[in-house]
């Protein structure tokens, strides 16, 4: 029997934050759910949870409902309840240090200042879990909060749409072939 996987999209709940740069993790999880024809998420683990099949693998999709900086509570509950190995947990989040639309997959490592990742690591007791970062571009000096809570504009929208398609493919590769295959195929040059 195939191992259960968990894909966590980080973001902030509520219509006020829908479509913001900080919610790119939610956007990817929503896209994965739509592709699997999931009609609704269930409220569980202080978040919204759905189960899908990706390339014949059981995959849980989770959107923590705790706000970005407290995402770890929800992730920790889901991991403990389902006894999921940390190598089978993929956290998807925005990254201010990457150009808009660039993907970067890592099997573990630092949170890079991303407070949602930091909280997940605190609740899992380690930084050693896979993460897929989606570039949202760099904010101006002292403007990070307004920038991440802003929406994509103009040409950025098309780049992010393309990035979400690629990120969906990256999740499928991760679910079937593992992290090394994702790094080899998706950690390429920045989008133009």
Automatic annotation (TrEMBL):
GO molecular function: peptidyl-tRNA hydrolase activity
Major place of residence: cytoplasm
Protein name per the record: Peptidyl-tRNA hydrolase
Binding site for tRNA: 17, 67, 69
Top-level taxon in the UniProt lineage: Bacteria
Keywords: Cytoplasm, Hydrolase, RNA-binding, tRNA-binding
Localization of this protein: Cytoplasm
Active-site residues, record numbering mapped to chain: 22
UniProt site positions, description: Stabilizes the basic form of H active site to accept a proton: 94
